[in-house]
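Figure-free illustration: sequence to structure, shown twice.
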Amino acid sequence: MKKIFFSIFTAVLLTGCAQEFNAVYKSTDYFYKYEYAKQCYTAGKYSQASTLLGDLITMMKGTDQAEESLYLYAMSLYKSSDYELASDAFKRCYASYPKGAFTENAYFYAAESLYESSPEPRLDQTPTMAAIKAYQDFLDIFPRSDRREAAQQRMIALQDKLVTKEFYNARLYYHLGTYFGNCLTGGSNYEACIITAQNALNDYPYMKRREEFATLIMKSKFYLAENSVDAKRYERYQNAEDECYGFINEYPDSKERDTAEKFITICKKYTEKTDPF
């Protein structure tokens, strides 16, 4: 019986709240509507707040509440997890009020919105690069901000995601190996792996995956030599041998050291008995 009473009470309460919201939404008293929207925001009713504020921001232009209404609209969207719209609203906020009371927050949360929209590494990373740029803009404009460290940590996390994306790409080329289905215009998967991995090492010199990329480069150069035509084999075995020595020097304790040493032995059997001239 108590459960039935509670369900009825809840339904009546929700109906009453919905009717109150609808009445406010239809109201032409914009300042009353705005105060109600702020109450919704404070109470954590972000969807209702964003609905009301979305209608109000145009009406509030030229008033003392103009900047605040736009910022609260953007924050309501952010807290409702509507990150794409939130990012646009924050950009609008700092573009409209470049020296306003909420400008620093707007820059930071524009970047935060893009951060939350960043997909997992296997997908297109355009939003990730946009988020990195947004954090960099924030740091350039507010270098002494209390959120500086938080922004820097976000950028590191986003860059790690880009590195992971490049690692997946390089590894895919390596595993495709001698498959020619995607090399109809020339080149090979091993060459594509080498180029992808080397570019990643150059673009992200302080990344954590350096050894993994170096391993892919070493292995790809060896198998590229193994599968080469006679005219290119000597040069490529020599290149692979040099790469293996370089790998051992840089990562002497690597679990792939035995592989590198085995490759060197095989490369020498060819380079020491073959005169390129």
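We now fold a second protein in the same way, so the two outputs can be compared directly.
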Amino acid sequence: MGLLSVAIWLPIAVGALLLALGRDAYANTVRWVALIGALAGFLVTLPLISRFDVGTAAMQFQENLPWIERFNVSYRLGVDGLSMWFVPLTAFITVIVVISAWEVITERVYQYMGAFLILSGLMNGVFSALDGLLFYVFFEATLIPMYIIIGVWGGPNRVYAAFKFFLYTLLGSLLMLIALLYLYFKSGGSFDILAWHKLPLPLNAQTLLFFAFLAAFSVKVPMWPVHTWLPDAHVEAPTGGSVVLAAIMLKLGAYGFLRFSLPIAPDASREYAWFIIALSLIAVIYIGLVALVQRDMKKLVAYSSVAHMGFVTLGFFIFNELGVSGGLVQMISHGFVSGAMFLCIGVMYDRVHSREIAAYGGVVNTMPKFVGFAVFFAMANCGLPGTAGFVGEWMVILGTVQASFWLALLAATALISGAAYTLWMVKRVYFGDVTNHHVREMLDINSREFLMLALLAIATLGMGLYPKPFTDVMHVSVTELLKHVAMSKLN
């Protein structure tokens, strides 16, 4: 077993063990086993960072074993500069989620922890798979644990939200399956994704493939107008579910554009870039305004995620290095910042059992340590320089300026709307006088909550002050991808 296999199957094995052996009578033991499994899953991803060769665009840490030999399907794994950082990010967020649920989840603890650990391994599989069928299996399998997490531990409308989430993402993926089968036969019976990148496809075939992939990945991102499942899923999901959904699962769709749409259908990607750019700008501008009028904090941050992910797809289809690298950096930074924002809402919900902005006011008077963290993450969500939230958005805007000043001007309005809706929430929730007895009775964060927020604060600040390790890893791979797209256009 290589590092990537361990990163995939170790959390899945621990999660399956908890499902098989766990009982609520042993809830404390289950929590410790889950934490040890999540920490071990994170530690095995660290050599990916230390041993990664930033000077090559080739796949690294490759594994290739026969799986379904009759149909030439292999268990093939590998990461490059486009995917490497998402494996440790997934494992890191899983550790945070286990810590966040320590005292909050008291029923079916073994199922809750097991579902998240299994989900962690499956998401690592999506970022590592180099076989088309293997990718599809991992991509679809992630729906199952998240569907259960929302449907079992969610809010009053959890069943509706879980079904909506499942149906949207499943229906979108069916067209992708047809595209994968077409590529399989077109390549002479191979599911090798890297071989698909070299297929000389005519523009009409590329166009059909492009929109088939768009159907799957746009729902997952989610792009406007197929974003409507996300606010419902976030509002009903437990805190841990919202964190993983925002921090990792939205990135699966954006990653799909880089691994499938751009390299397999490069001519169609350029032909219809205007369409993706238009949808991205609508998400950035319109959804930012929608976030401004939200009364539910989770809905506000959910719409904020749609707007921020609009920057990602905008950067990818600008077709320059600053834009694509900025989109990747934005994916990573959004994982830290949005995850932290949902954790902060969860901390308050555990005390007051309300997500309504009107239910709070003057929280700083009773929870000063917590508000210090919450305001820091809110500033990062606004794109404050020095935080992770700034780096990716600024790179995308600079990349967009190279393509069109007016497009960049429209994208930059997100910095204004983002500050507006975030600071408006901060003012009403955290500052001013204490407005009700619920807030007056709130206790400041304990050591467990301090730890999870501190870890995310360090990551957010570290990436904001020194993004070089992230950009160095992706530089060569981004350059090669853009060269591949440009060469295809010339041919």
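Summary for the second example: DSSP finds 22 helices and two strands in the chain.
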